[in-house]
Amino acid sequence: MIEEIKKLVEEAMELIEKAQSLDELAAVDLEYSGKKGKLTALLKTLGLLAPDERKIVGQACNNAKNTVSESIDKKRSYFNDQAIARELDVPSFDPTLPSIPPGTTTGSYHPVSVVQASVERVFEQMGFKILDYYEAESDWFNFEGLNIPKDHPARDMQDTFWMKSGNLLRTHTSPGQLRSMKEFEPPFRAIFPGRVFRYERTDASHEHTFHQVEGIMIDKNLSVSNLIAIMKILLEAIFEREVTIRLRPGYFPFVEPGFELDIQCMTCGGGGCPVCKHSGWVELLPCGLIHPNVIRAGGLDPTQWNGWAFGLGLTRLAMMKYKINHITHFMSGDLRFLSQFKAGGAK
Amino acid sequence: MKVSWNWLKRYADLENIDPVKLATQFTLAVAEIDEVFVLGEGLENCRIVKIEKVEDHPSSDKLHLATINLGNTTRTVVCGAPNAREGLITVLADEGSVVKSGVNETMTIGKAVVRGIESVGMLASPFELGLSDDHSGIIELPPDAPVGMPLTQAAPVKDVVWEIDNKSLTHRPDLWGHAGIAREVASLAGRKLFEIKTEIQFTNDAPLKVTNLGGNLCPRYTAFTMDGIQIAPSPLWMQILLYHAGMRPINNVVDFTNYVMLTTGNPLHAFDRRDITDDTIIVRTAAEGEEITTLDGGKHTLSATDLLIADSHSGIALAGIMGGANSEVKDDTVSIVLESANFHPGNIRKTALRLALRTESSSRFEKSLDPANCITSSNLFASLVLENIPQSRVTSRYYDECNWEKPEITIFLSCDFTRLKLGFDITDEKIKSILTSLDFDLTETAGGFNVSVPSWRATKDISIPEDLVEEIGRIYGYDNIAPSLPLVPVQKPWTLPSKTVQRKTSDILTLELGFSEVMNYSFDKTRMLSALNMEVDARLEMANPISQMEPVLKKHLVPNMLANVELNEKRYDHFRIYEHGRVFLPRENEIPEQPRHLGFLIADRTLKNDEDLYYQVKYCVETLCSRLETGPLRFEKVEELQSWIHPSKSARVVCNGMEIGYLTTLNPIVKRKLGLESQVALGVLNIDTLAAMDKKATVFRPIPRFPGISYDITVVIDPEIRASSIIDVLESINPEIISDVRCIGYFEGAKYAGKRAVSFRMDFIHPQRTLKQEEVNEIHNIIVEKLAESTGGQVLSVP
Ligand SMILES: [Zn+2]
């Protein structure tokens, strides 16, 4: 019996050695270890043997099967590697041959891009520059220079992604205030949309990565009244309807005075509904006159220059515009979501 | 923070003002009110009653029959409370009362027959009356409570509570107590603010030794002793106010400290004097590793920067955060030491954060409280004790260990500056009256006022004229400021070059080439990194990653886009996606370099082979670049191979001698590792490089005056010869006549015996005349010769 097993293994090994393709290999596998294979057939005859012999032969038979299948696996991965190597080495492939137009399909924009484009359009029409600054920032641009020193409680409000290098991912688009003041001669006006990061768990209404747009205007003698006027224009352009807004005090270290701007609830018209938590108003954006310390940090003389700034959540705006109920869709990469937004942003 | 209207009324004249209406004004002028609660509605039929007699219910073990005195009548009601007893003064919720039956539920009391006995009204628990969380028994009123009087008349149970968003108070240390809120409310309503009048006679005795070694960590430490203390419940009105403000009443001394904190904003702490070894109080920093057990039972190991209140033996309180378990006030306390102090906000915050011990006290000290407030707070506490604990007396001098000098902040406020900043024509008189109503001291001077800032606004809140403008604007009401657009010079038109490239490429990909835009996180996933054989670059690693699965900033857009393929190939046979985004490249001692990239990718699971996809992506690259007017492209061999790049089926895209990106089919090893079933090809362009490039503006080519001919040839070449090198040869032959050389197709097959037949088309045009056939033949012969010579190619076709 044992002899017979030995012979079968030798036979199988020789065939494996000779095999030239995956198909031949599969045939060997079937012939020896398959359901009707030779080794399998031997195993089925064990019942005829005496118990102590049965044990020895059974074990030998199983070892044989293992040996054969190991060899087959080895050879199979050799074939696979060979196939990959062949696939990788294609000197005849000419990357300069004529292109092929991909067939027509309908593309789509990311909903945040749509909203961002419409905001950019509004401001460009009013002579604002559209700028784009770094996402990984230094502590100085994200906090210190914005009048938020170390130990300032305002740092608590913005849970921060820190890098091991000591830099951070910007928690707001506000570093752009300092960067734009350093880059452009006053007077100027600009907005800077982009992604921002907060160190928090994601759920239906929280994302650690989302989009904001920040805007500033630097000139002499800009007032709260100017800020209100521009904000109203912005919101009426975005929502394509007349809006009622109100300012209330809001504390942000980089503005003084600082405001929270509320918009009258567009769902209920101010009467109160679940969207506005029955207050008739929806908190929309923080804004204010830029703090003299920030003007100074931007390299300008606050006795000469002043300005205002605002920040607006683009992701939030897209949620409002398209009635998207779950914020995690935005970064999901799921085409069932993404392919729904065909319209471009600006009009 | 919860603010009780009844509490406010103790500190300002607020009669006949509707607190619900005023809440909106407060939100617009001071701080956001999240919610307004109207409390005690439906308690009009509740009366103070005295239990005359308690008998067993004839058919119940647990229920009693209580005979109660309502002042002018008596009545018997069924009652199940364990504390119902003869002589107890309690409250009957009579028929029609609406009481609490659950956290957000109420029930209306009526007549009931309980186990055969009719009972009208119900003896009520503090919980049912909305006065505490306690529903273990009926409420127990003090023996002198006026029997028969409606409860709403005897105690401040009817109230309106504002829930103010704490975040909107962070910058206002003066608003963490009702007195400060009362000042704002009085200013808004044009009413009078009451002064907190408390004059306490301290003695000349000096039983304590108080030493303040805290330096700037403890600007002020005051203390005094009181004897004759008897621990008991605090008066009912105070218990109710505390409960309305969100605090659980404990006992008189603790309640008094809390009451003072919620009035002046200054946290106090009372020690049992018996526990202060040697009557010695030392304010000092902890020894590194020193331990303290706080009165919540927590054990803390301190560091040398933590501030400690200690006696001669050990720590007795974690300064500004929580008292020690070893010295807390107990039921048999008769003598106390009362601490009223001020601590460094940043240091308190640091300790509280590190020990995860944020308390009502620490969150107030973090806000930079006014050290001047210590005395008012001490006095208010002492007066409450003296009023409410009959045998009590002050038994020491007022220890005042002060490292602080009252700041004298005077700001010149120009009235024109105010008007300019607000953009509104507010009168000098109005400016003056608003600031005065907030207790600023004003002296008139040329063009404005010298404004002296009260100490409670001087800790960090108000220091520059802009701060005063805010005070005026908010009290005046921003709603009263009419919007007006700024009058500014026209700006030179200018667009950020990268923005132009991003906009154009997005539009081309979406509108012309049928791609969908995706946005992915800025992090790489460990799973992808290992499948792509990439290392985590420590210089881009996050100190606090959102998850261990995404520990590092990405250097490439591609890995996350491959994850997009994994997700979407299950549902889509064919799809095209693109992403605009910054990638991160580490630099020493600087923030990472963050170039803007564009990645685009086609996936198709119906194809057997990826070569067509390569040429489709190449088509996209060419379309994008021609619309960006980059000038001619070259597709050259990729030198730096990322793991996903196919070594043969790829090319780097070169334009004007600059590499602008690459395209490739997905490397089969990566494809197998990720288990992707789709064929994938992708391209990456560097937006910043494209934006920085000089544009090759399209220049009109005159329509030829003389007819030219369109000339096609087919060349049989070794497959290793690139079509582009044939084009190079053709373009060099006679540039004056040969133009617009392009490859138009190729054939392979047995017929060509391992070679490839590639066809080219070009125009032959002579600028001055029509070409003669002989000339064409001559050029053709040169072409045949040159191609044979330089590429070994054999030309098949003839003109
Ligand atoms: Zn609403």
What is the helix tally of chain A?
A: 12
The secondary structure category of chain A is: alpha+beta
Can you count the beta strands of chain A?
A: 9
CATH class category of the largest domain in chain A: Alpha Beta
Instruction: Quote the beta fraction of chain A.
Output: 15-25%
How would you characterize this protein structure?
The complex is a heterodimer of chains A (347) and B (799). Chain A has 347 residues and is α+β, with helices and mostly antiparallel strands. In chain A, 41% of the residues lie in helices and 17% in strands. Chain A has helices spanning 2-18, 22-33, 38-44, 51-88, 111-125, 139-142, 154-157, 175-183, 224-239, 292-297, 314-322, 335-338, and strands at 129-130, 136-137, 168-169, 188-197, 209-219, 245-249, 255-264, 281-290, 306-313. Chain A has a seven-stranded mixed β-sheet, with helices on both faces. A two-stranded antiparallel sheet of chain A has the order 2-3. In chain A, β6 (245-249) and β7 form a beta hairpin. In chain A, α5 (111-125) crosses α11 (314-322). Chain A starts with a helix and ends in a 9-residue tail after the last helix. The mean pLDDT of chain A is 90. Helices cover 26% and strands 27% of the residues of chain B. Chain B has 20 helices and 40 strands. In chain B, the strands form eleven sheets. Chain B has a seven-stranded mixed β-sheet with strand order 28-31-32-36-35-34-33, with helices on both faces. Chain B has a five-stranded antiparallel β-sheet with strand order 5-4-3-6-11. In chain B, α2 packs across α4 (178-189), α13 crosses α16 (611-627) and α19 (723-733) crosses α20 (773-791). The longest helix of chain B is centred in the last third of the chain and has 19 residues, at 773-791. The model of chain B has no long low-confidence stretch (mean pLDDT 93). The chains are: A alpha+beta (347), B alpha+beta (799). The structure holds zinc ion. Zinc ion is lined by residues 265, 267-268, 272-273, 275-276, 280 of chain A.
